[in-house]
C-alpha cells in the first residue's frame, strides 16, 4: 500500500481527494492537514510515502512546508495538487524538493497515476507546465564545478532523466538492467548534491547536459 497525507486548507477538497485515493485499492490515506505547519508536523509523525500538498495554505505555505520536509524527512515524496494562479510558486516548489505537480482540475486517473509515479521516485509533470516552468532557466547557466565529475555514462543517464524517462525506459534505451540505471541515478544525485530526479533534471538543463529542445 502507498500511504498518503493530504494537505489542503479546504475541507471539501481533502474529503473528495480522500475518497478518490481510498477507492484506488493500493493507496491508504493516513492523515489530513489544513495548513503547511500541520502538514509538516503530521508528515514527521506519520511518515507517509507521499504528501499531496497544496501551495496556498495559511500559517506556512506549501513551498515552506516542502523545504522543511526536504530537510527533516527527505525520504517523503511530495506531489503538488494545487489550483490556478500559483504558477510562479510551482517552480519554487520543484526546486525545494517536490517531485511532481498536478492541477486540481486533473482527472481522477491522472491523480492516481501521479501518486504512483511519485511514490516510485519518478517525476510527474504535465508537458505543458514543464516547458513553461523550465524556460525560466534561460539566461542563468550553472557553471558549478563538481568535486566528483559525472562520467560520460552518468551524463547520458542524466540527460534521459531530464527527458522524463523512468528507470525502466532508460534501461531499455541503453540496453542495461534497471539495477544498473538505479545505481547511476544514485551516483548522479550524490555527485550533483540534489535530493530527487526533478532537481537533477533542473541541474542538467542549467549546465547544458540536456536542453529543452531535447
CATH superfamily of the largest domain: Response regulator
Number of strands: 5
Helix content: 40-55%
Distance between the termini: 35 Å
Overall number of structural domains: 2
> What structural class results from the helix and strand content?
alpha/beta
Unreliable spans are none
Instruction: Please provide the ordered H/E string of secondary-structure elements.
Output: EHEHEHEHEHHHHHH
Shape: globular
CATH topology of the largest domain: Rossmann fold
Please give the CATH class of the largest domain.
Answer: Alpha Beta
Average pLDDT, rounded to a whole number, is 86
How large is the share of residues in beta strands? 5-15%
Gross CATH architecture of the largest domain: 3-Layer(aba) Sandwich
Strand order of the largest sheet: 2-1-3-4-5
- Put simply, the count of helices is 10
Instruction: Work out the radius of gyration.
Output: 17 Å
**What kind of sheet is the major sheet?**
5 strands, parallel
Amino acid at each position: 500500500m502507498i500511504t498518503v497525507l493530504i494537505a489542503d486548507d479546504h475541507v471539501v477538497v481533502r474529503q473528495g481527494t480522500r475518497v478518490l485515493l481510498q477507492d484506488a485499492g493500493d493507496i491508504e490515506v493516513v492523515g489530513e492537514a489544513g495548513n503547511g505547519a500541520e502538514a509538516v508536523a503530521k508528515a514527521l509523525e506519520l511518515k507517509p510515502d507521499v504528501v499531496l500538498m497544496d501551495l496556498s495554505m495559511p500559517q506556512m505555505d506549501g513551498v515552506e512546508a516542502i523545504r522543511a520536509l526536504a530537510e527533516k524527512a527527505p525520504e517523503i515524496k511530495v506531489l503538488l495538487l494545487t489550483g490556478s494562479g500559483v504558477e510562479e510558486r510551482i517552480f519554487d516548489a520543484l526546486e525545494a524538493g517536490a517531485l511532481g505537480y498536478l492541477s486540481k482540475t486533473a482527472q481522477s486517473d491522472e491523480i492516481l497515476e501521479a501518486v504512483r509515479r511519485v511514490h516510485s521516485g519518478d517525476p510527474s509533470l504535465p508537458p505543458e507546465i514543464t516547458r513553461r516552468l523550465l524556460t525560466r532557466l534561460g539566461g542563468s547557466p550553472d557553471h558549478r564545478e563538481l568535486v566528483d565529475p559525472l562520467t560520460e555514462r552518468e551524463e547520458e543517464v542524466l540527460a534521459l532523466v531530464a527527458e522524463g524517462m523512468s528507470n525502466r525506459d532508460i534501461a531499455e534505451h541503453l540496453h542495461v538492467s534497471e539495477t544498473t540505471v538505479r545505481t547511476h541515478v544514485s551516483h548522479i544525485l550524490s555527485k550533483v548534491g540534489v535530493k530527487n530526479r526533478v532537481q537533477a533534471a533542473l541541474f542538467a538543463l542549467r549546465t547544458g547536459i540536456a536542453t529543452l529542445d531535447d
